[in-house]
Amino acid sequence: MTTTESLKTQVVHSEWFKSLAKYEKPDLKKALGQVADTLIPYFALWALMVYMVHHHFSLLLLAPLLVLSAGLLVRVFIIMHDCGHGSFFASHKANRLLGQFCSLLVFTPYFEWRHHHAAHHAAAGDLDRRGMGDVYTMTVEEFKAAPKRKQIGYRLYRNPFMLFIIGPPLLFLIMQRTYDKGATTLEKRSVISTNIGIAIMVALGSWAFGLKTYLLIQLPIIIMAAMVGVWMFYLQHQYEKVYWAPHHEWDPIRAALEGSSYFSLPPILQWFSGNIGLHHIHHLRSRIANYNLQKCFDEVPELQNVEPLTLKTSFKCMRLNLWDESELKLVSFKVLKHSNKLRME
Question: pTM of the full predicted structure?
Answer without folding.
Answer: 0.93
